[in-house]
Design goal:
The protein is α/β, with parallel strands linked by helices. The protein folds into 2 domains: 7-94 and 178-198 and 208-332, P-loop containing nucleotide triphosphate hydrolases (Rossmann fold, 3-Layer(aba) Sandwich); 105-173, no CATH class. It contains 11 helices and 12 strands. The chain has an 8-stranded mixed β-sheet, sandwiched between helices. A 4-stranded antiparallel β-sheet has the order 2-1-4-5. Strand 11 and strand 12 (317-318) form a beta hairpin. It binds adenosine-5'-diphosphate and magnesium ion. Residues 49-50, 182 line the site of magnesium ion. Magnesium ion is lined by residues 49-50, 182.
Length: 334
Amino acid sequence: MEEQKLLQVDDLRVEFRTDEGIVRAVNGVSFDLAAGETLGIVGESGSGKSVTNLAMLGLIPQPPGRISSGTALYRGEDLLTANAKRLSQIRGRHIAMIFQDPMTALNPFLTVEEQLTEVTRLHLGHSHDEAIAHAIKMLEQVGITGAEKRVFDYPHQFSGGMRQRVMIALALSCNPDILIADEPSTALDVTIQAQILDLMKQLQKDHGTAIIMITHDLGVVANICHRVLVMYGGKIVERADVDSLFANPRHPYTLGLLESVPRWDADLSKKLKVVPGQPPDLAHLPAGCSFYPRCSYREVRCEQSVPPAFERPEGGDFACFIDVDSVKPVEERT
Ligand SMILES: Nc1ncnc2c1ncn2[C@@H]1O[C@H](COP(=O)(O)OP(=O)(O)O)[C@@H](O)[C@H]1O
Ligand SMILES: [Mg+2]
């Protein structure tokens, strides 16, 4: 029997009822996550990265949202059918999520000590003293100096980067199996961003935490991820090991994203290139490939049928009929 994955998502579909119609934000997403692994999710804004992850944690507002199909097994337990009590237990204890803005996770009216001790008293059964000692230890681990004093400060007394660290300390307080980081360093300057990534790598090494890193920064992907999912229009259009994806992109969208980076290790500060054209209207998805209108390699069949997933020779898969290495881009055809 195949070894059970830490997380196994299968055919996840999420839609939103809006004035424009049903917005199909996530359209049959399947992936898994192994213990201790860092999985990157990249793709332009609106491609369904956040919704995929929020759905697993029961954080999609319903209505207007609806999870219309799928399973998301965490150690074999389906998160999509778990009740609210169980989900809040899992969120506090086993799967943590951090965001771009630390203040979505931190309460401005409570000291850091109050927030950190609350979760460990609740989920780990710590006594008051144990909880405070643990809170100080967590702050030290994320690199906050003078932790035994700073623990009694309020979030606003920390700088942006330090607040990010406090949020990470809070997320990791109960030593979760999975940390979902949704563009955690986007708002920070480059130096602090690099520090936060180093910190996450170190914490992963020390604790074996699996990380889902949602980002639009290829440097982040190259720096921290083992495997990558490329999302477009609510679907995974390509997945592969990081080195293999950078060396050998097979989906035209991935190719477009990578085009500005001449060699994957050349300039890691490059952001994802903006691929010309508009993202698909998720309320009126086309019959065929949703990347078709923007695709340089398109053929007639792409407009008519949705490409299935084809295996990449080096592992992983991609959803495209075309062999981009042997077909000329539209601009070069005569
Ligand atoms: N509460 C909501 N109501 C309506 N549409 C939503 C809601 N949340 C997300 N969406 C839509 O779902 C799509 C995917 O969003 P999201 O997962 O946030 O994208 P990403 O994180 O990749 O930028 C977007 O088109 C967005 O407009
Ligand atoms: Mg997002």
